[in-house]
Amino acid sequence: MSIDVLVIGGGNAALCAALTAREAGASVLMLEAAPREWRGGNSQHTRNLRCMHDTPQDVLVDAYSEEEFWQDLLKVTGGKTNEELARLVIRTTATCRDWMRKHGVRFQPALAGTLHVARTNAFFMGGGKALVNAYYRSAEKLGVQVRYETPVKELVFDGNRFVAAITESGERIEARSAVLAAGGFESNREWLREAWGQNERGEWPAENFLIRGTRFNQGVLLKFMMNQGADMIGDPSQGHCVAIDARAPIYDGGICTRIDCVPLGVVVNRDGERFYDEGEDFWPKRYAIWGLLVAGQPGQIAYSLIDQKVIGRYMPPVFPGITANTLPELAQKIGLPVDTFMQTLNAYNAACHQGTFDHTIQDDCRTEGLTPSKSHWARPIDKPPFYAYALRPGITFTYLSLKTDRSAAVRFEDRPSPNLFVAGEMMAGNVLGKGYTAGVGMSIGTTFGRIAGSGAAAAALNKS
């Protein structure tokens, strides 16, 4: 069998690459490590795409300019981003949805309680699973071949030119070009342990991490490419890491395990002490820093605390909270030192500045004379019943990546491969040096999946 384009991976970026390459006239084979029922990688757990738009567009209200999108990204990454590639992603999101619809993706207006993102993010009808299934249906109709349970362990090169892939079973699959879209190493516990190391308390933080997404992203090809001398970018300890319910499963907990009440209450560690400003910014711009914050606390655990006043003002979690009618009782139930816990809560309650509470804007309810401060939505926690949610770091994907440029070509000693391209998590660190803002992972995967697919088809068909 003669193959033009080999796509290694089975999530959003891989599918975008496969569909684009097939539209360009190339024959395409996709290799997905997961069984069919678990296909789609982390994309099956997504729900929206961050989109620039200068005017209202169907499900998107108002406007979200290129510059505002860029400033949001710049803020969460702390400047650790390639502006050229970031702006390429941003501009592409203004026009990609028509292509997505052509392949069966449907969008819906943001539902009540979806965290202030009706203006910035387009929600998939049926969520990420529906998006993945739509793309697979379209791929099948177009003649893209898909093989499941076919993980790839290494590649064969002639210089920096791709020649073939070797599967875990030892099968050799040759193609004229290839796209790497096999995800990061977030489900590889050993590599996470190595990346995070041992902290000053003698703990190995990664031992307490939960994996929000797929168990199949082991980073095998990422490690192989590193060893082959491919140009790399990013910090292996950085990634999309969210504070999630400590009762979540080890793998595939997805979005429903996230705890979204953090900005409306306080968060304490196992010593009963606060450690960060819970009201720093709107939750979609800050939720992805909390996993790393919790990872830095003793035992990699923390507790989000709220009272009755905020019930109904956030997306409820899948598991009920621990409840109590008094704060000392709540401390006892979650196993925290009561005296320190009460000192923390009393100091916080006393520091709350009386303002006009509004969880839909950055209101003037803040603390005064308290370290760490709470910048917005600060109200005393004083109305029972009280609720506590235990938090653990939930890894979504890692940012150590293959370095690339706007062509999506894999690079060796700063020279682009003529026929090997990369998309999705395997290159996301070019745009995301640290931090995250809701929906941008799908923006990166969609943009570079299509660029990689187009480049691979051109290389295979000698049109480059």
TrEMBL record:
PANTHER family: FAD-DEPENDENT OXIDOREDUCTASE 2 FAD BINDING DOMAIN-CONTAINING PROTEIN, FUMARATE REDUCTASE
UniProt-recorded name of the protein: FAD-dependent tricarballylate dehydrogenase TcuA
Superkingdom of this protein's organism: Bacteria
The FAD-dependent oxidoreductase 2 FAD-binding domain, residue ranges: 4-431
UniProt keyword annotations, A-Z: FAD, Flavoprotein, Oxidoreductase
NCBIfam families recorded: CobZ_N-term, PRK08274.1
InterPro entries for the chain: CobZ, FAD-dep_OxRdtase_2_FAD-bd, FAD-oxidoreductase_2, FAD/NAD-bd_sf, Succ_DH/fumarate_Rdtase_cat_sf
Gene3D superfamilies: FAD/NAD(P)-binding domain, Succinate dehydrogenase/fumarate reductase flavoprotein, catalytic domain
Cofactor(s) it depends on: FAD
